[in-house]
Design a protein that fits this description.
Length: 483
């Protein structure tokens, strides 16, 4: 790919799969957004929407996997955009890189913030006198980011081990939660309850309310580009990175549907639980009792912490690669690698610091989490769309060992179409009436990112950034390898 090797290849096939599976994290994603789905479509959209959107995400993942096989680098999306563009390679690469960067930072911040929220919910359940505040949420998030930064500072082997543990935490945790919800409640909803539809969004249109509920699945299925970003640290990356993407999405789709059904059929008092501060937690309390609910909540919190750790790892590799090509302020700092740990330590702490900046508004305003999630999802999915779109424009695309053959373009077209549709949904109002609390900040976040990137591009970047940098011929680059 034209770069000297600085990062160690110690990620095996399972490790590469584990990072995307952990970032998608069906326990974290479903528990964070289930309440929104109860009010935007109800069980019908939560279950059947999960199935439909999972298929569309598989198309996105397959298109990304094909590109990952052809361009297995830490730069991932922005690198492949620069290589696939026919003209204006620097501009395509620039915008993709910054959308990916902002989306990755938003993901790290959102998972840390969600974990802090659920930690406070657990503390309040254990000690009812405890007062949940925005200030405490921010402080707990800062502590989480600090711990995740420390874990990423040490060797890639430690991160790989933690990601392996996270996979088993998710699988065993899923089995425990689903088994408890299946066996312990004295009664469940009838089989037909899966078709129950609810629209508590405030909008009169049931179709619009139901379409908003599709976002529950989209919120969950973010971050599978993590396998792509870890390519330079994965053995046989041209095959293992695309397989990691596809396996992570496929296994998450199946296990997520099982968890979704378990929660849906355990609902007792729909109206009260949908209106609760944390609807899935209230479902656990009503169905299983306070003691068991607290135990299961610890599993959820653990899943969120693992999710944040994997998010930060992926985020760090994107910063490392983007800086390697001189696209970030202080690039020579952020792409340096520790001679002792062989990890991009400075990039780790930049990722942690930027994530904390996104979280700080939560000190004053409880709507911060919605804004952070908007930054995460809109930024990432637009970054996913660009290289797939550019690949569709090519008739001479050279695939890697893992490819879709003649299905590459049809699947890519479906992937780009769904990304555009889902992003429009993310930027439309999600509740009525519109107030500062219910306002959808996604369009504002996207506009700010694009305005800054555009001003910066025309002011200075277009003269110095031409896309991915080549350090020389393969033999010359091989001589530069530090490992």
């Amino acid at each position: 790919m034209g770069y000297p090797r600085k990062l160690t290849r110690r990620f095996r096939a399972f490790d590469n799969f584990a990072i995307s599976f952990t970032i998608i994290n069906i326990i974290s994603g479903i528990f964070s957004s289930f309440g929104f789905g109860m009010n935007a479509g109800g069980p019908a959209v939560l279950v059947f929407g999960w199935i439909g959107v999972s298929v569309m995400v598989l198309f996105i993942g397959a298109s990304m996997a094909e590109i990952a096989s052809a361009y297995p680098t830490s730069g991932a999306l922005y690198f492949s955009a620069g290589k696939l563009a026919k003209t204006h390679k620097g501009a395509w690469s620039w915008y993709t890189g910054w959308l990916n960067f902002v989306g990755q930072v938003g993901g790290t911040a959102a998972t840390g913030y969600a974990a802090a929220t659920f930690i406070q919910a657990f503390i309040a359940m254990q000690w009812p006198s405890y007062e949940v505040t925005g200030q405490r949420t921010v402080l707990i998030t800062a502590a989480i980011l600090l711990l995740q930064g420390l874990a990423n500072t040490y060797t890639v082997q430690l991160v790989a081990v933690l990601n392996r543990i996270s996979v088993w935490w998710l699988i065993i945790g899923l089995v425990v939660i689903v088994t408890a919800l299946t066996v312990m409640p004295s009664e469940h909803q009838s089989a037909s309850f899966v078709t129950h539809f609810a629209n508590n969004t405030g909008f009169e249109s049931a179709i619009y309310g139901g379409m908003l509920g599709l976002l529950v699945t989209s919120w969950t299925f973010t971050g599978f580009d993590g396998s792509f970003h870890m390519s330079e640290e994965t053995v046989q990356a041209t095959v293992n990175a695309p397989r990691g993407i596809m396996r992570a999405i496929g296994y998450s789709a199946i296990t997520g549907l099982i968890l979704m059904l378990a929660l849906v059929y355990s609902i007792r008092d729909y109206r009260a639980e949908a209106a609760a501060d944390a609807p899935p937690v209230q479902i656990l309390i009503d169905a299983l009792g306070m003691g068991t609910a607290k135990l299961l909540l610890l599993i959820v919190i653990g899943a969120m912490l693992f999710c944040g750790l994997a998010n930060m790892t992926s985020n760090t590799r994107q910063i490392f690669a983007f800086s390697r090509d001189g696209a970030m302020p202080g690039s020579r700092w952020w792409h340096s690698v520790s001679s002792r740990t062989r990890t991009p330590v400075k990039a780790v702490w930049l990722a942690a610091a930027c994530s904390l900046v996104l979280v700080i508004p939560g000190w004053w305003d409880a709507t911060a989490f919605t804004a952070i999630v908007s930054v995460n999802v809109v930024g990432l999915f637009l970054a996913y769309a660009v290289p797939i779109y550019l690949r569709l424009r090519l008739n001479d695309f050279e695939p890697g060992p893992w490819h879709l053959g003649r299905w590459g373009k049809p699947i890519g077209a479906l992937a780009v179409t769904w990304i555009l549709v889902s992003n429009v949904l993310f930027m439309l109002p999600h509740a009525w009436p519109i107030t500062p609390t219910t306002f959808n900040y996604a369009p504002v976040a996207l506009a700010v990112v694009l305005i800054i990137a555009t001003v910066w591009w025309f002011a200075t970047a277009r003269r110095r950034f031409q896309g991915p940098v080549s350090y020389g011929r393969p033999d010359e680059v091989a001589a530069m390898d530090l490992i």
